[in-house]
Amino acid sequence: MKILVCISRTPDTTSKISFVDQNTKFNSDGVQWIINPYDEWYALVRAIELKEKDPSTIIHLINVGSIDNEAIIRKALALGGDEAIRINTNNDDAYFISHQIATIAKDGYDLILTGKETIDHNGSSIGGMIAEILDSNFISLATKLDIENNQAIVTRESEGGEEKIAAPLPLVISCQKGMAEARIPNMRGIMAARTKPLKVSEASNTECLTTINAFDLPPAKAGVKLIPADTPELLVKLLREEAKAI
Fold first, then answer.
1. pTM for the full model?
2. Pairing between strand 19-20 and 25-26?
3. CATH classification of 2-219, choosing from 3.90.180.10, 3.40.50.300, 1.10.3860.10, 3.40.50.620?
């Protein structure tokens, strides 16, 4: 079985976010970059677990980005990917990225795994777009995945409960919490990652469907107003006159 895992680079959640050029560009100065957690902890680690059950499984990683992304790609290889492909371009348009990944995926993969979303853009659209371009089946928000008799047994969230789905391969799946447990690369994996193949491919000519006009930070949190415990009438007054309905 051949698995393609899509990985992206995102700012660490502790990074201080700001924008430059009249709020049209993300300020990357001093930002610590990581593998998008949904891609790493759930999509990639579950692919590794499937390979541990079936050593004949091949795991390829794919990333759309510049040479700056190679540090996180090497980390993903250290975790357990067999080889990686980097599409050499900088572009945040979801359709453009999906088209680049689908172009590579046409070479033939049984399973394509993505995180349910990235923690910076939160778009949740890449997996579905890849499946549409490839004319493949797609299952979103998966929390469990097993392979039995050349078909995927997938559990996903649904309104008010869960669904258990049996789907033939090839298949595209977006993964979320519950799919696997996070891992840390060991020294053997880190050393092996240095020599694993990392191919660089130029981007295909694809239109972008979105443009960014500007970014806005969330409004600053309002201050906390403390009410003395012996003045309940003041609390009632403030709840009536100042509190906003949620």
1. 0.86
2. antiparallel
3. 3.40.50.620
